[in-house]
Amino acid sequence: MAEKVFSQAELAQYDGSDGKKAYVAIDGVVYDVSDVDAWQGGKHHGQTAGKDLSQIIVKAPHKKSVLGKLPVVGKYAG
Fold first, then answer.
1. What Pfam families does the annotation carry (predicted)?
2. Whether 32 contacts 22, CB under 8 Å
3. Does CATH number 3.10.120.10 belong to domain 5-76?
4. pLDDT in tens, 51-65
């Protein structure tokens, strides 16, 4: 199966609301944060899933160290 490439509009559909999956894009890679307790409901420290958070994650205390634990679901084309 070919790797899924998400547009901005497609990624926005995965915002974690109403039981939907919660995906975030970081540096062109789309991660599934649905099973991360801190991302319940698609929200985490004022951020919302379904977006490119590349500029935001570098300001977080954990930076990119958490990404290795997350399932990769595709690429982000923006």
1. Cyt-b5
2. yes
3. yes
4. 999 999 999 888 999
